[in-house]
Automatic annotation (TrEMBL):
InterPro entries: Sec7/BIG1-like_C (IPR046455)
Domain Sec7/BIG1-like C-terminal: 64-266
Protein origin, superkingdom: Eukaryota
Species this chain originates from: Phytophthora megakarya
Official protein name in the record: Brefeldin A-inhibited guanine nucleotide-exchange protein
Matching Pfam families: BIG2_C
Length: 276
């Protein structure tokens, strides 16, 4: 760590916090003290200019958004018909906020010129590996938002009709509509990004397809695990659009995806086969 010139007040014994990242949340303090931090390994100097770049946008706010997405998903997925502490209207508003969070993140992720600008000013958020070839992004917010949103919708659909905690029929119909659209779009995009199937026109293929594949893999695995819990009746409603996508996923090389896919066939699709 390099220190500023001796203070006219004789205060020269300045020490930095053990975690420079904490102080980096307050760039005004860093600029005033003139600190320059260096990590032990690998050696990399974090300049005041790089710290200033963290202001746009705040990484603290983005971390809070991830936490809020998890909280919203857990609260909505654990709603019960009896002893509701969250009204239907409030639940719908919260679900809309969750949907808006990943839709906004997607707009940022599709705005490549904006992401290139953020990279030039030193913003490094959302990069899967430290590499100059990757662009900063809000992929974590898009992926987690979609995962929590789908978890809420799947929770509504898999509840037994004989259970007192079942959601109203109208709520199930709405959940089914949104789930179908989002799952279909997600699977088609993933297959296109991996090059397995051409669900996206070549000129519309994002330049960061590989980065998106790595970020979206946990979402795909979680979605397949949710689909594996469908009963016979619910699964039959979706086989027309779902089955072709499932068979295409067989060609995806990722091991985690293939394991999750096998559970869909062995648990859910198997219900549709005639008894042995």
């Amino acid at each position: 760590m390099s220190l500023p010139p001796p203070s006219p007040f004789g205060i020269t014994n300045l020490t930095s916090p053990r975690q420079p990242s904490l102080l980096s949340m307050y760039p005004g303090v860093v600029a005033t003290l003139g600190f320059t931090f260096a990590a032990n390994f690998p050696p990399k100097v974090i300049t005041v200019e790089e710290v200033e770049a963290q202001r746009v946008p705040s990484q603290t706010h983005l971390a809070v958004l991830l936490a809020l997405q998890r909280v919203a998903g857990n609260v909505l997925a654990s709603r019960r018909k009896e002893n509701l502490s969250l009204s239907v209207g409030h639940a719908r508003s919260l679900l809309s906020c969750l949907r808006e969070s990943f839709m906004f993140a997607r707009k940022v992720n599709d705005a490549v010129p904006l992401r290139r600008y953020m990279q030039r000013v030193g913003w490094r958020y959302g990069m899967t590996v430290p590499s100059s070839s990757e662009l900063p992004s809000l992929l974590p917010q898009e992926v987690l938002g979609k995962q929590q949103y789908l978890h809420v919708l799947f929770t509504v659909l898999v509840r037994s009709v004989n259970n007192a905690e079942v959601a109203p029929i109208g709520e199930q119909d709405e959940a089914r509509k949104y789930m179908t659209r989002l799952v279909q779009d997600t699977l088609e995009e993933y297959l296109a990004w991996t090059g397995v199937a051409q669900y996206i026109e070549e000129e519309k293929m994002p330049a960061d397809a590989q980065q998106r594949v790595e970020s979206f893999t946990p979402l795909l695995v979680a979605t397949l695990k949710e689909l594996a819990e469908f009963d016979n009746t619910e699964l039959q409603r979706h086989m027309k659009w779902l089955y072709p996508l499932l068979t295409d996923l067989v060609m995806v090389p990722n091991g985690e995806v293939r394991v999750a896919l096998s559970s869909v066939f062995s648990k859910a699709v198997r219900q549709l086969l005639p008894p042995m």
